[in-house]
Amino acid sequence: MSAFSAYDGTELACRVLGDGPPLVCLPGGPMQDSVYLGDLGGLSAHRRLIMLDLRGTGRSAAPEDPASYRCDRLIDDVEALREHLGLDRMDLLGHSAGTNLAVLYAARHPERVGRLALITPSVFAVGIDIPGDVRIGTARLRRDEPWFPEAFAALEALVAGRAGADTFQIIAPFWYGRWDAAARAHRAAEDGQRNDKAAAVYASEGAFDPAATRAALARFAAPVLVLAGEVDLNSPPPATAEFAGLFPHAELVVQPGAGHFPWLDDPARFTATTEAFLGQGASDGSPRRRDARHAPPLP
Could you say which of 152, 197, 233, 293 is the most buried, measured as most Cβ atoms within 10 Å of its Cβ? Predict the structure, then answer.
């Protein structure tokens, strides 16, 4: 565990795992303890993973000003971490809601990012709409699962605006490629890992300016990986394809059979894909690019 001070004196912490070139990792939730990332399916065998606990989460202290939980205000915490690490540029990985912070950081400090990996990304920061029928269509890919009828009925109610108190618990299997013991344990642990008060501020008014962010990302010169899970309801492939299209040098990869946590569903495939991106080089300075329109269509 490593500790450092943020711009306002808040003491922040990060977990450091593995050896190799550093990779700064921003967790989702939003505002969830980075412990849920584990070692990203064994990626720590190739990279020194620097897992930031955002302020008020994990072992990081809560700030005096709760308004500083807003996503755009967390950019300075990421910059403070870079300075603490003594890095001129850093490879950056964000998962889920953490990708909002990752792209806002990249938009403000493009010269500080070497490579950017966006894993099952949230789309709030760039204003992409995900229609309910896209989520429903993605869910139908799981129709042969034994838990599907109850979970699908709850999902339909949620999309129609009729969510009940236990709706999110019922649809939990949809977030994982396999609803096995490991997935159940991962889901159960999440309940005590998120700072709900901080999460309520994270995306509050003023946090995002999608038009300005899109314009900045269109000029972002560094290589980008956008990794989607084939059956991920939160970040379905059509939305992640649109996200990848915002960058001039982006590669979209859809991991077969994966949900929202692809390093749990197929660790070897996830690690191979991510490390291949992080370690690749090209004579023109840009990564191998795959047309985002080639994402598999929904039924």
Answer: 233
Cβ atoms of residues 96 and 260 within 8 Å: yes
Q: Look at the alpha carbons of 39, 58, 69, 185 in this order and tell me if their dihedral is positive or negative.
A: positive
> Residue 120: which residues within 8 A CB-CB, separation 6 or more?
95, 96, 227, 228, 229, 232, 234, 235, 240, 260, 261, 262
For position 295, what pLDDT does the model report?
37
Query: pLDDT at residue 289 above 50?
Result: no
- Asked whether the beta carbons of 43 and 279 are under 8 A apart, the reply is no
In the chain, the number of structural domains is 1
Looking at residue 292, its pLDDT comes to 32
Asked if residue 79 belongs to a domain, the reply is: yes
Q: What is the mean pLDDT of the chain?
A: 93
pTM confidence score:
0.92
Query: Cβ distance 38 to 68 under 8 Å?
Result: no
CA distance 48 to 113: 16
Max CA-CA distance within the chain? 54
User: Is a pLDDT exceeding 50 seen at residue 23?
Assistant: yes
| Radius of gyration for the alpha carbons in the chain, expressed in angstroms and rounded | 18
Residue 187 lies in a domain: no
The domain that contains 65 carries what CATH number? Answer: 3.40.50.1820
- Domain holding 217, by residue range, is 2-131+194-294
- Alpha carbon separation from 89 to 21, 72, 276 (Å, rounded): 12, 20, 19
Structure tokens at 298: 């929904």
**Inside any domain, residue 169:** no
Under the banding of pLDDT at 50, 70 and 90, the label for residue 192 is: confident
